[in-house]
Amino acid sequence: MFVPCSTTAQTYRNISLGSSLTALNDDNSSWQSPSGEFAFGFRQIGKDGFLLAIWFNKITEKTIVWSANGDNLVPQGSKVELTADGHFLLNDISTGKDRSIASSAATGVAYAAMLDTGNFVLANQNSTFLWGSFDQPTDTILPAQTLNNGSRLFARYTATNYSRGRFLFTLQSSGNLMLYTTNFPQDYPYFSYWKTDTNGSGFQVIFNQSGSIYLAARNGTILNVISSNTLSKQDLYQRATLDYDGVLRHYVCRKGTVSNAGVWSTLSFIPSNICMSISQPKGGGSCGFNSLCQHDQGQPICKCPSGYTLMDPHDVLKGCKQNFAPQSCDEASAETDLFYLQEMNNVYWQGSEYDKFQGVTEDWCRQTCLADCFCTTAGFINGNCWLKGAPLLNGRIDNSFMGKNLIKIRKGNSTSKSAGSANTKRKDGSTLIVVGSVLLSSLGFLNFLLPLITYLIVSRIYSRKVKVIQPCPVMQGMNLKCFTYEELKEATNEFKEELGRGASATVFKGKFSSDNGKCVAVKILDAKVRDNELEFNAEVSAIGRIHHRNLVQLLGFCNEGHHRILVYEFMSNGSLASFLFRESMPNWYQRRKIALGLARGLLYLHEECSSQIVHCDIKPQNILLDDYFTARISDFGLAKLLKMDQTRTRTAIRGTKGYVAPEWFKNLPVTVKVDVYSFGILLLEIICCRKKFEEEAEEENQMILADWAYDCYKQKKMHLLLQNDGEAMEDIKEMEKYVMIAILCIKEDPLLRPTMKKVTLMLEGTVEVSVPPDPSSFINSGSSCL
Fold it and tell me: Can you give the residue ranges of the Protein kinase domain (predicted)?
């Protein structure tokens, strides 16, 4: 919180009430400090728009040190104004909307000023600062600036994109100073990669006028020196910036007319080697998925391994993608000859291992990876072989690493599947035809031919029978484990602990002693699929190839006799239903994270996996939560397998909407938009922590959540949806946005509903949310579904 202080010792130019600046294509739209060293105003960022910012004004580069609208640039003609009543507003001419820049400023603002320290302030008649840009830093701190408990610096997204990026620097309320990766695009601290270990003692980060940056205790004791400047401060501009690559750098720049004036140089930086510092089990790490990070004098250089190219040349932190068709899991063994392993020395990816073998040869390791469609690279050192799958995490180039990494690459530009195998089969078939013709043409061979034919027929019948009764059929190319029924019976203690039961399956908790006691969820499917072995194998094969952080992973299956069983990851925090509809209300941040994760999972199923999947049964019971309360969609891909037919419950209550989209009841084609509808209903439940229909609601108009939410939105009474939820009340604008998105998702006409891609972008804040329509455009006043 900002502490008012006197400013009588400083000189500045008052900016009076009623003053304004307009975003123009020149350098005149700014307010300068008395010395002219800093300026406040609009800077044009390429062709994207204008940034309201503070910058060093006397160097050619005009380095920006603070910004107000990095996530939402405004077009030319937009205006910033200190209004007559003391409000400081940014007006976006494209939308006509005003945004308060200093919403925390107290009443009584008399003027503004751009100080020579780089701090832009709002002050009252007594020259007491009511608000300052120093109190809301973006990615940079300056001499004379401090960071208090809870303060944060956010790295920008790229060198030229000033929206929030993937890293943050924060002094936690506990007193520990840390650098974090974030759960991007959310700003929640994800994994720390540098810290001071000062829990209980850290109080302020101080950047003093001498150019030293340090962490101090409440009594002023220096706990940790981040950077120390021994150069003459009078000759230097200084700044400390958390750059977009996650490195906090202390920069200096000489003033005046000397040869190197106006050029920033790095005085110090933390961490000492970001490539080696970041090693996290989830997320893109220092350079993104499938990439390699090479440290070079404080700079992480992001590269792609052989066979890969950058996802986006303008954003190297997005990682790398394969520039060839991946190995097919349908015909992995047939495709083995189409790939080779390229050796890469001094290279490794920390994590990503899904299997490890000891006491093997390098050749064995190579052949195992080539035959495994999930293997993208194999690590080998001293008889140990690690198989790693996509995406590859925490890639480093490290000269001290003496092992080998063998990365799988498709030969040439071949995208054909099993061409050699097919040719062989055709040749074998042709040979049999020729031989048969020769034999049949000679009656002398008749006595020889009949016994041969009989033998071949009997052998084929027998081989088919053996295949049918095979207790654990092999699904070629799949990295799924095939379990016997007895194995699953033992793992579940004879199916003792039931986790849940639905219309089509029952789920039990299991544990395999051979896998370090790892818990699993064992789903026994009902009789609908017992007599459909071919379809079961086909659908399990399809589900097994799907991998996403917001989907529950299928680990294995059982297809023995009449038993059709699926084995999934065990989700320790249960279902979203038990999480939302309990006495203690989950915090608002967790609910937002769950909503975004759910949207991303559905986007993957609809648009990003190899074949489009419509879930058809999105509801809280089918959304599970892992150890980190990450939303994980379950039962995807089962709609086709179970020939799911939604329960078509009707009710006389007006406008009741359940998870089932209206098109189910109108004989309309079922598309991905049915999942969008279900998501909209579920999003409202996540926002309000209550079920879609509550017969025991306090008021009759509150029984149907969707109707009540729209009424509250229309009447500007959003607070009524957040009873006893003070945390969400503090973020009511964001909550209102979520309600608007939900309303857009439950339009009756599926063509008018947004795609899950657009929904995800709206939740992330990348795309603006349009105003929802009148209820009549999506509510059927007759009967509807629960």
Answer: 493-779
Q: Against a cut of 0.70, is the pTM above it?
A: no
403-462 pLDDT, tens digit per residue, is 889 999 998 754 433 333 334 333 344 444 444 444 444 444 445 455 555 555 544 544
Residues 565, 582 within the same domain:
no
* Bind-site residues: 523
Sheet holding 236-242, edge to edge: 140-141, 236-242, 248-254, 264-270
Total number of domains constituting the chain? 5
Query: What element of type H or E holds 158?
Result: none
In the chain the first and final C-alpha atoms are separated, in Å, by 47
Q: Would you say residue 311 has pLDDT above 80?
A: yes
Catalytic residue from among 245, 372, 617, 725? 617
Using alpha carbons, select from 147, 148, 125, 94 the residue that is nearest to residue 14: 125
User: Does 301 score more than 60 pLDDT?
Assistant: yes
Parent domain of 120: 1-136
Residues 129 and 123 sit within 8 Å (Cβ to Cβ): yes
Residue 9 predicted with pLDDT over 70: no
Three-state DSSP class for residue 459: helix
Q: Is the Cβ–Cβ distance between 622 and 616 less than 8 Å?
A: no
Q: How far is Cα 694 from Cα 700, in angstroms, rounded to an integer?
A: 9
Verify whether residue 617 is a known catalytic residue. yes
Q: Are 656 and 668 in contact (CB under 8 A)?
A: no
Instruction: Collapse the DSSP code of 90 into the 3-class scheme (helix H, G, I; strand E, B; otherwise coil) and give the result.
Output: strand
CA distance 172 to 169: 9
Same domain for 758 and 630, yes or no, is yes
In a domain? residue 496:
yes
Using alpha carbons, select from 86, 73, 88 the residue that is nearest to residue 133: 88
Q: What is the CATH number of the domain that holds 41?
A: 2.90.10.10
Contacts of 105 by beta carbon, 8 Å cutoff, 6+ apart: 86, 88, 122, 130, 131
Alpha-carbon distance of 690 to 395, in angstroms, equals: 43
Alpha carbons 80 and 90: distance in angstroms, whole number = 4
Q: Which two tokens stand for residue 372?
A: 């495994």
The two beta strands, 177-182 and 140-141, are: unpaired
CA 651 to chain centre: 39
Each residue of 271-280: pLDDT tens digit?
A: 999 999 998 8
18 and 123 belong to one structural domain: yes
- Per the annotation, binding residues for ATP are 523
Phi, psi of 43 (to 5 degrees): -120, 130
